[in-house]
Amino acid sequence: MAAPQDGPHEGCGEHGLREAEKRVTMTDAREFAAPNGEAPARHTPGSPCWVSLMVHGLTATEDFYGALFGWEFRPGPRQLGPYVRALLYGHEVAGIGLLPPDRRLPIAWTPYFASPDADLTADSVRSRGGTIAVGPLDAGDTGRLAIGSDPSGAIFGVRQAAAHLGTAVSGMAGTPAWNELLTYESASAATFYRTVFGYEEEAVVSAGFDYVTLHRGGEPVAGIHGLGQALPRDRGPHWVTYFQVADADDAVDHLVHLGGHVLRPVHDTAHGRMASVADPEGARFALLQRRR
Fold this sequence. Notes:
Residues 47-161, 175-290 form the VOC domain. This is VOC family protein. It comes from Streptomyces venetus. The structure is a single chain. The protein is α+β, with helices and mostly antiparallel strands. The chain has helices spanning 14-21, 58-69, 118-127, 186-197, 248-257, and strands at 48-55, 72-75, 83-88, 91-98, 109-114, 131-138, 143-149, 155-161, 176-183, 200-203, 210-216, 219-226, 238-244, 261-269, 272-278, 284-290. It has an eight-stranded mixed beta sheet with strand order 2-3-4-1-5-8-7-6, with helices on one face. Strands 10-11-12-9-13-16-15-14 form an eight-stranded mixed beta sheet, with helices on both faces. β10 and β11 form a beta hairpin. It is globular, with a radius of gyration of 17 Å. The protein starts with 13 loop residues before the first helix and ends with a strand.
């Protein structure tokens, strides 16, 4: 049974995506490899390069996302504890790990942003009012990682790649399509991420709508949506990852059958059909079926 719907803004993001798509298709990530075996190029500093989820039940979560997105799994770096990398047609797209019992982190998808030096980026996060909760630490061929939060408490990751460069395929069903920060107001959040990662900003000029698109190298890489008092109190500021699907209605039906929950039903937008959902442990994400 679907969970009760959230407020009208939760996880939607269609306004911000519309602004981004005026300039470039939001998953036209030119540094990603196509699913043809080509080696992926190194991610541009500041660009989303990985998404990861820490859960209580690793096997059950693998079963859920494997059935929903067609992912297969293989072991990840041992330095991260029980951890697997999700693969789509042999290409890595995401990571899932077991939440340590002494870590009180929310069950949530966490976007990682590329950095040429994770230690310097972590210092920058701290100096600008954010926190670093984990790392920086070495994680085998993954490179050097840190997990932190911005001044409002939204959690994100920093990733200095080594041999494993991160998400290696995009633009197809089962891959990350967009990352969006839901927070109280966009201006201060945008200032934090701009000073840490060197983004350019483009605000949506619209009365009563608070949205900023973050750009890197002229390309939109993420959005910040200020919701004010409409931000769910039980969740606080947080990042939402969108995953592309071939058919949003079928994906939602399948998700519910697998034990997931619908937070906002499938609805039409300028980009196609979207839904805000959660997995059985409560990790929230969005589904996007592109317009053809």
